[in-house]
TrEMBL record:
Gene: ESTF
UniProt-listed Pfam families: COesterase
InterPro entries: AB_hydrolase_fold, CarbesteraseB, Carboxylesterase_B_AS, Carboxylesterase_B_CS, Type-B_Carboxylest/Lipase
Record key words, sorted: Disulfide bond, Glycoprotein, Hydrolase, Serine esterase, Signal
Molecular function in Gene Ontology: carboxylic ester hydrolase activity
Record-given protein name: Carboxylic ester hydrolase
UniProt xrefs under Gene3D superfamilies: alpha/beta hydrolase (3.40.50.1820)
Entry annotated with the keyword Hydrolase: yes
Origin species: Anoplophora glabripennis (Asian longhorn beetle)
EC number: 3.1.1.-
Length: 446
């Protein structure tokens, strides 16, 4: 009897206080690490677990497929890869990037069934990652008893290029997210998590992604609640209206003999044959010039597609009007002045606002379906007049408010109003009037 008690206690302390822990999931064994929070709470970190096969070679621009089982013990104690960023210089960038991190406050393989927070990062569908240094779980591990999952997903052309047909339907970044949610359903119990208590959370482009899953039939049953922080399917940047044109522009930038007379299959062959670095460089050039793409969707963003694997199959406004959603409780919200972060680079911000002043048709959303240039200009002038009596470039505080409203606030509020007709919604606005949180004190008035 006493020998048995000693053995159990000895095994427990060896497990808890060793620097690593080994568990078995559906695909094989993984080795995580024991970590401490800022307040010295213990948690278990499993970093860079593959949730899909590397999307390279012939799998570039294709939906994710399952990872192969592995032999031996896979080291999941650190992050070494993030998805390729358009214009980014981070040395961790790699096309082989479909990994996730799991953090748990309980001994893995225990009988606990904790709620699960599944987080999708933002970054304009062009940048960002889910690694420990970006989104560590410390505060959750200190204050909440839950399991945290954070993922990488494909970005830029790798995740969102589309020919708007069956060759490259698009939305592979969203399909990566859904695949990771399916992985959670199959594996989270090994970390002390409850697959029936997954809350899907996202910020900015990640928030828009969450709202796509809320209205996608293919995501039904993968989460029980959702939190949207600063983005929805109705924010103008979250849906690309001219994806095929952009795909062909991308191909032409690589091979100047490539034209719209070429087929989608020829485009796929061309773009699968170039290096990831070359494709990344083209994407960086495409996003470097201020343009109207903010009102036609981020240059690489979700699209409407068809097919059995489709995420978005109809205009989101119409889907919301019909109430064709996964009816889960939601928290939806925003910050008071979302666009203030864009003035971190004051010169670039002024350049954008100068571009708008020089051509006010740019700020007229394509979804208004106003085609006549003179009418567009009149509407653009009226919009600017709401915010400033002068030029945007001379009144940057008003410019921040205009961009915050047009790209975030009005669309987020509309989304919350529409979806609340069909499910339970809690709305918030985060405001802080302080030294770093007030737009007038931050950039002043001209």
């Amino acid at each position: 009897k006493y020998c048995l008690i000693y053995f159990i206690l000895h095994t427990y302390f060896l497990f808890v206080f060793s620097e690593e822990s080994i568990i078995t999931i559906s695909y094989g064994q993984i080795k995580g690490r024991v970590a401490k929070t800022f307040k010295n709470s213990t948690f278990y970190a499993f970093q860079e677990i593959p949730y899909a096969a590397p999307p390279v070679g012939s799998l570039r621009f294709k939906p994710p497929i399952p990872v192969n089982n592995w032999d031996g013990i896979l080291d999941t104690t650190k992050n070494t890869k993030i998805c390729i960023q358009a214009g980014g210089t981070n040395t961790l960038q790699n096309e082989d990037c479909l990994y996730l991190n799991v953090y748990t406050p309980v001994i893995p393989d225990s009988d606990e069934k904790l709620p699960v927070l599944f987080f999708i990062h933002g970054g304009k569908f062009l940048s960002g990652d889910g690694i420990y240094t970006a989104y560590g779980p410390d505060f959750f591990m200190d204050t909440q008893k839950l399991v945290v999952v954070v993922i990488n997903y494909r970005l830029g052309p790798f995740g969102f290029l589309s020919t708007e047909d069956e060759v490259i339907p698009g939305n592979n970044g969203l399909k990566d997210q859904r695949f990771a949610l399916q992985w959670v359903q199959e594996n989270i119990q090994f970390f002390g998590g409850d697959p029936s208590q997954v809350t899907l959370v996202g910020q900015s482009a990640g928030s828009a992604s969450v709202s796509y899953h809320v209205q996608s039939k293919k995501s039904t049953g993968l989460f029980r609640a959702a939190i949207c922080e600063s983005g929805t399917v109705l924010t103008p940047w979250s849906y690309q209206r001219y994806a095929r044109d952009i795909a062909y522009q991308t191909a032409a930038a690589i091979d100047n003999s490539f034209t719209t007379n070429n087929t989608s299959q020829e485009l796929l062959t061309l773009l699968q044959g170039v290096s990831a670095k070359e494709l990344q460089a083209v994407a960086a050039d495409q996003i470097s010039v201020p343009s109207k793409h903010i009102n036609t969707g981020f240059i690489f963003a979700p699209v409407i597609e068809s097919g059995e694997d489709a995420v978005a199959t109809d205009l989101s406004y119409e889907v919301l009007e019909r109430g064709e959603i996964n009816k889960v409780p939601m928290i939806i919200g925003m910050n008071s002045e979302e666009a203030i972060t864009q003035v971190n680079s004051l010169g670039s911000f002024k350049k954008v606002m100068r571009t708008y002043d020089n051509d006010l048709t740019i700020i007229v959303n394509d979804d208004l379906h106003v085609d006549e240039a003179t009418t567009q200009l009149t509407i653009g002038e009226s919009i600017r007049k709401i915010y400033t009596d002068g030029l945007f470039q001379d009144d940057l505080a008003s410019s921040v408010r205009f961009i915050s409203d047009s790209r975030y606030s009005m669309n987020i509020i509309k989304y919350a109003q529409m979806i609340s007709n069909f499910t339970e919604v809690y709305f918030y606005q985060f405001s802080y009037d302080g030294e770093l949180g007030n737009v007038d004190s931050y950039i002043g008035r001209s």
